[in-house]
């Protein structure tokens, strides 16, 4: 899923886009404060080129596939537009070469659908006339925006169902890396589960990859061997769902509807849809309106739970959906203190509501989640 | 009158060289043919690769940055091969070198002029340390270094992943799964190309001279080609084996230091980018000759860089991987074929 494997970001330059943006461009001589920022010049659709760098193969039926659908939506919305993409971009200096090649090939807009950090910024700095986006990014530049999804809300909803369907109260999680997506996903999942089973726990195994079906399968097996009976994870493919199906356990997935790989085990999936976002940003770029955005797509507009699996009891689905409805219609958030970390320290005071920014940057496990904090 | 094939124990250098060139050309032709069959335009693609790689200073700078770690790892493997040892662990030693150098840069403050040499020395020592156990196991217990060096790669990679996502994680909170940017970097001398490149070339030339002109180099070569004879002649083969394998690890470790401090700037899991494994191919193609690795590392960098350009034209990474494999396969066939010659048999013979 998302982002990151190696990631890097030049965080110290990120002290607020307004103050820092000019500092990032000394080599080009383009020092201008962000508040005075003019949009990039318009581009005729016949001359336009939009490029995508992906972390996995577009055939993964998961994260990268979903972004590729976004590219196809752009092609459909702007007939004649040129597109280019590279799959399985490594988190190494090769990523810089690939993004630079996009620019050399005439790209007007480059989407990194994962978190390539400095490897992307090095290219963006030298190509001020090209619009860049980094998915799950945390660095802002005059020509670099970020985008991601508020997946913690559907993860909480899925957690309610998982907690209700688990007999042991032990939930397992196949993690890519100990990064904020994984912290917020596991924490939200457990908070949801604890509304129905206050003794529930989440055990994580980190496999150092977003796409490694073999490692994900092994991790899923190990978690089930350890007594877990519901698996969640943040993988780009269906490996641990198949394990859960074979072992009579349950699973919550990410990205797409994967139920055919484990119809009995499938609870739901954290579904993503970037099509409207991509079409809108390309439209702004072509029209000469583009300035960077840093948004998180909310539940119902880019991320949501999938239709419930066939073995999810209707009363469980109803309970989880009640929370989802409250979030979507009343703006209710379950991420309210008091919340303790895995060492027992109070991190969010009683009554305090975590901001979207805090949820996006979440980098500690709540009490009950094990395997992520060093 | 009849002909027969005769096998020579060692190929003539001129024939071997011609076979090497022919194998690369044939591999490229085969690849072109396959591309043509799947409906691509191989000549146009090749022209695009050459233009993007050699037609701009950006392309050349990228090529140089790719060439540098390949040369270090190629040299590491080649040196070990001189004494008959297969260092499959350059990948791990490269990671360890990067790890140790990053540790110095992040946690041992000091002026640049002191820190960079300290990082280089520590990186090299860490690479040597990583091959120490396989070396001693091979020297004293006859344990195959092929397996031990290979397995340690995974340990090294996990170590780097662990520190860069755990204890050494960038404290700014904005960087994921990587350390903070190192406060020192190897100076650049041309665009984004840093001094790791000339150092590697000097190393290659120096190693070639040592193997060609010193007694130690001579004994290592003999120890590699015929250990029994070398021992009989009173050469300390085991001592040479240990020294050469540690040197091999140190070169890969230095390569890791240059990559983290020169090219990438942060320690993170993907830093080795398979250079250690590609180094095996570089060394084998160069027949373990240090000067030859300069040429083969350059060839490999061109192919890999070309591969990136091809990917932006719609080819998959797997195609590029297949192309590099194809070249190695053809080279292996060419190597063997170069040992044969056709002799005409005289009448009545």
From TrEMBL, chain A:
The keyword Ligase does not apply. One of its GO terms (cellular component) is plasma membrane. The keyword Signal applies. Keywords: Signal. Transmembrane segments: none annotated. Residues 50-289 form the ABC transporter substrate-binding protein PnrA-like domain. Pfam families: Bmp. This is BMP family ABC transporter substrate-binding protein.
From TrEMBL, chain B:
InterPro entries: ABC_transp_permease. Its main location: membrane. One of its GO terms (molecular function) is transmembrane transporter activity. The keyword Membrane applies. It is a multi-pass membrane protein. CDD domains: TM_PBP1_transp_TpRbsC_like (cd06580). It is found in: Cell membrane. Keywords: Cell membrane, Membrane, Transmembrane, Transmembrane helix. GO terms for cellular component: plasma membrane. The keyword Lipoprotein does not apply. The chain crosses the membrane at residues 21-43, 63-81, 93-110, 116-137, 149-169, 189-213, 241-258, 278-303, 315-333. This is ABC transporter permease. It comes from Paenirhodobacter hankyongi.
